[in-house]
Amino acid sequence: MAGDVLSQSEIDALLSAISTGEMSADDMKKEDETKKVKVYDFKRALRFSKDQIRSLTRIHENFARLLTTSFSAQLRTYVQITVVSVDQIPFEEFIRSIPNMTLINVFEVPPLDGNILMEINPNIAYSMLDRLMGGAGSSHSNVDNLTEIETKIMTNLFERSFDNLREAWESIVEIDPMLVELEVNPQFLQMISPNETVVVISLNTVIGETTGMINICLPHVVLEPIVPNLSVRYWMQANTKQNSPAQTDFIQTRIKQSALPVIAELGNTAISVEDFLTMQLGDVIPLEQKIDEPLLLKVGDIPKFTIQPGKLGKKMAAQIIDPVEGGDEDE
User: Fold this and answer.
1) What's the CATH number of domain 44-240, 3.40.50.970, 3.40.50.720, 3.30.420.40, 3.40.1550.10?
2) β strands within 208-314, DSSP E
3) Is 211 helix (H, G, I), strand (E, B) or coil?
4) Which residues of the chain does CATH 2.30.330.10 include?
5) pTM of the predicted model, to two decimals?
6) Full DSSP string of 3-18
7) Contact (CB, 8 A) for 215 and 119
8) How do residues 284-305 score in pLDDT, each as one tens digit?
9) Residue 161 and residue 140: Cα distance in Å, rounded?
10) What is the pLDDT, as a whole number, of residue 217?
11) What count of other Cβ atoms lies within 10 Å of the Cβ of residue 238?
12) Distance of CA 31 to CAs 13, 17, 24, 183, 270, Å?
């Protein structure tokens, strides 16, 4: 009724019913305040909040940029990788969505428990392989069992990408990705329960003239220990985190123990290359420093003080006279 347009006669009848007490305004409000029912599929449980999904998106947008640079250098061709979607779905649905024969990297991410997947579309995989073998980057979608040489080449390529993944995740957790296996048939993957929620990050990948998808599958059971770290509050706290007094004292103590070279400069002069080449034992080089002028003391090649030379016991010493103006006293 709320979405209908009433005629004038219907409005008059409604006002008449209210005035005679046949209907009250409260009854009308109760009708409008009916509860809205939302369908919930227990087989497709949403385990991550929108805030956490946005954090995962930011992480893998950074990963995509790093991976673009890395693959461009290794393949020596145009590469562009971008995040196109981040969804949470059941693991079984992810397995059904990828080709029956494809390239799947299974790797561990200590200290987190469990495995994550990186699925590479056959078009992209064979384009990469062709480039690494010296070809133009042509591709075909018919994936057979990889030979030992092809497996080794692809394994080396994607193991190098783990450095990019490690860098992308370092603001949340320090992981150490390690390749477990390289699989071509997703039906053989029995990592987790079919109904377990996973986050799938889809990366649109362009290599030369070939286009395809790279999908990263992150099971909830793997990310569960660090799920609180994916909130905006954690990011803000991490960015504003200050050192504790104990940490500050430790840093100051270590800095005070640092060794610096201290040089008392007796003087300097300039000679020609010809004079330098004809120098012999016993030659005297006059300096531009007068004997009654103070010497210069340098700390780490930076002029700091004027000094006068002397002796302390049986050792040579220098007495500080004045600081040098512009000698970076605050450093």
Assistant:
1) 3.40.1550.10
2) 210-219, 262-265, 295-299, 302-312
3) strand
4) 255-323
5) 0.57
6) TSPPPHHHHHHHHHHH
7) yes
8) 888 888 878 888 888 878 888 8
9) 23
10) 92
11) 11
12) 18, 16, 11, 58, 99
Query: Would you identify the CATH topology of the domain 255-323?
Result: Surface presentation of antigens (SPOA) (2.30.330)
Distance CA 279, CA 220 (A): 76
Evaluated on CA atoms 159, 164, 167, 173, the torsion sign reads negative
Residue 109: other Cβ atoms inside 10 A: 21
Contact 286, 271 (CB under 8 A): no
What is the C-alpha separation between 165 and 109, in angstroms, rounded?
10
User: What is the C-alpha separation between 77 and 329, in angstroms, rounded?
Assistant: 51
Instruction: Give the residue ranges of DSSP H helices in the chain.
Output: 8-20, 25-32, 50-75, 91-97, 122-132, 148-169, 220-223, 232-240, 245-256, 273-277
| Per-residue model confidence as pLDDT tens digits over 16-51 | 777 776 666 666 555 555 556 666 555 555 678 888
Considering the chain, tell me which residue range(s) the CATH 3.40.1550.10 domain(s) occupy: 44-240
Task: Round the CA-based radius of gyration of the chain to a whole number and report it.
Answer: 36
CB 72 within 8 A of CB 131: no
Are residues 158 and 105 in contact, defined by beta-carbon separation less than 8 angstroms? yes
